[in-house]
Design goal:
The complex is a heterodimer of chains A (115) and B (113).
Chain A lengths: L4 E3 L2 E4 L5 E6 L6 E7 L6 E7 L2 E5 L6 E5 L5 E5 L8 E8 L10 E2 L3 E5 L1
Parallel strand pairs in A: 2-11
Antiparallel strand pairs in A: 1-3, 3-8, 4-5, 4-9, 5-6, 7-8, 9-10, 9-11
Chain B lengths: L2 E4 L4 E4 L4 E3 L1 E4 L5 E7 L5 E7 L5 E4 L2 E4 L9 E3 L8 E8 L8 E2 L3 E6 L1
Classes of the chains: A mainly beta (115), B mainly beta (113).
Chain lengths: 115, 113
Amino acid sequence: ETGVTQSPTHLIKTRGQQVTLRCSSQSGHNTVSWYQQALGQGPQFIFQYYREEENGRGNFPPRFSGLQFPNYSSELNVNALELDDSALYLCASSLGLGTGGTEAFFGQGTRLTVV
Amino acid sequence: GDSVTQMEGPVTLSEEAFLTINCTYTATGYPSLFWYVQYPGEGLQLLLKATKADDKGSNKGFEATYRKETTSFHLEKGSVQVSDSAVYFCALSGSGGSYIPTFGRGTSLIVHP
């Protein structure tokens, strides 16, 4: 059983650029969620994809967008990068939407630095 | 909206000491409650969970009881080890029919030999 893998592990971008982060979900999982974790803070929910459809979104602007593929892997795209976008981006996969008690399995994250 | 409040860290303990990390929440309805642990350089791992009032979650010697009357889910361990040093996050989801999870800010635990 493979775990959740994210790529790249580290990334440095310039303000105004665009970035794509990738996530391979755990085998058999059809739900992927993305989080932003600023230094010293808890993860903030960005959005969730279930069977290739967006299924919930946190308080993030439209320049944060995503995609889920038929194999349930996912991408997070951020346009017009700002300095405050510097953070650890976490992907988590789970099976179905559950009842709120479903366990999510997290990847190691992508550390994005915007300069 | 929903919120989770954790005690400020870092919490610094000697090995074999008793650990309590406080967590209280504000939510609509009856959410599920979780504790996640994040070791340095890694993603979050689910430590334990409880899905209804008075449930006790436990794992690896850690325990937490879902207390609806005090809206709390405090994490405890009777005897900590150096390997328990990590950041601990309290979280909730399933509040008011929404599955969007809410995390606390995290509490850093440092255990000295």
